[in-house]
């Protein structure tokens, strides 16, 4: 069973969202801040358990006392556009509005870009810009639930367009990195989010959650206080081997977001059709891109195969092959 590797600490209710959820909007700076005592407890927990920390920042610096404590532990700062450039070691999260204002990606090279489906049209320009800088885009789509047939086919077209851009910008040894197309080229097994398995979250209320999305959904989703023995109810449902659909899948770049699973299917271990079809569209586009890269003698494509599939949702195969889905569903009861 994989071990806990890192802790996410939400410094303020209005801290930037880096994933498939929205954070809170608060007015005053101090409102919604994690207390110093709780931050101290969270940092001590991380140090004792040898965990790295991802700190989620609001739009302002948290003050000297907090910053000193933050520096006590190995960490990554994840910051909104407003703090981009303030910390040299931070990862900046950008929204569509941040790109429009300046018509460029910003000075930072490794960004998380959160877009909703109508905003995806700005993606090619963002990819061009990041390619120019030799950076990386981690795309998070904010409205996965809206991806029915027509949005999936638009997404497929967009993936083909961006693949073309990446192929053009690739050299013999390098290709601009965008998670949804290039990650699959480098992976040999699932690279999922693994919330609740490799990471946990400490929220501004000082309690633990599977990930920030569960906190913002409801305080009732807390899995308990910060302490060394953590018991997560039905923890096995978070694991790949207890997901009959995901365990037979090779769309390795998929985040396998257990929050979206829970929201859209009511079960932590069952992905939504939307999520599976999007990940398979990406997988297919990566496969097509790989063939073109091979023609260009791109060294990173050597020895990699992404087979063509006859389906775009592994659920169909799980059922056809009589994987006992019921057997796994019983863990929910
Ligand atoms: S479960 Fe993982 S991928 Fe999903 S919202 Fe939480 S952190 Fe993001």
Provide a descriptive summary of the structure in words.
The protein has 333 residues and is α/β, with parallel strands linked by helices. It contains eleven helices and ten strands. The chain has a ten-stranded mixed β-sheet. α2 links the parallel β2 and β3. α1 (36-48) runs parallel beside α2, α5 packs parallel to α9 and α6 crosses α9 (273-295). It is globular and about 55 Å long. The two termini are 22 Å apart. The relative contact order is 0.12. Mean pLDDT is 89; it is low at 325-333. The structure holds iron/sulfur cluster (SF4). The site of iron/sulfur cluster has 12 residues, from α8.
Topology:
Blueprint: E1 6-10, H1 36-48, E2 52-56, H2 64-70, E3 75-80, E4 90-95, H3 96-102, E5 110-115, H4 123-133, E6 136-141, H5 149-169, E7 177-178, H6 179-186, E8 199-202, E9 207-209, H7 212-217, E10 224-225, H8 258-265, H9 273-295, H10 314-320, H11 325-329
Helix pairs in contact: 1-2, 4-5, 5-9, 6-9
This protein binds iron/sulfur cluster.
